[in-house]
Amino acid sequence: MADKRILIVEDEHRLAEVLRKQLEESGFQVDVAGDGLSGYRMFTDKDFDLIILDVLLPLMDGFQLCHEIRKVNGKVPVIMLTALGTPEDKLQGFGRGADDYVLKPFDFRELLARIHVFLKRTAQAGVSSGKLKIADLEMDVATKTVVRGNRKIDLTAREYTLLEIFVQHKDKLLSREFLIEKVWGFDFEPNTNILDVYINYLRKKIDVNSGVKLIHTKFGFGFYCSETEL
Ligand code: CA
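Structure tokens for the assembled complex are given below, as produced in the milestone run.
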């Protein structure tokens, strides 16, 4: 793990330093930012393999920072570290693109175990790059072809992009805002129904005539792609 670099964004100086020491002793390279803005600057400055974010931060909070990170990088694992533990807080974190949620106070060994899970997953994703899979659906990123079971599915470019984002982030709740930015590249009117229209197209092509539905709605929060309901 010596080549793995972790960014910690945490304004409680003592906690940040303890965490830095423990992670360094576990073999990681560690950078620490004390507020959301410098966290964002560090993130754009260097390549990180994983990011640990506090939620309550000066200048830019962890939810916002996570959202900004996701605009640029959909893949780097983000673990939110916080004392805010209501289901609403968690959903907000996941909606902004966080991968995991660890409640303070936490046991370092548990955090370390989760870090290892994410880094292993990233490594495996790299090996199988070129193909994205969920259930019996397979996407070939190079040729932009999609097959479900033994049925070839014809998608428009936009539909393909939307599906690729869903499958890349499978089992994760994605906000409308996140999906619209990723697929259309700029902010639509918040009440536009373009996303719903495209999700409807995708469902008709992907999920109709299939026992396992892959595209799900979480009312009030967004959408996710999964073999099961989250
Ligand atoms: Ca804090």
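The mean pLDDT is 87. The domain at 5-126 is CATH 3.40.50.2300 (Rossmann fold). Further analysis is deferred to the final report.
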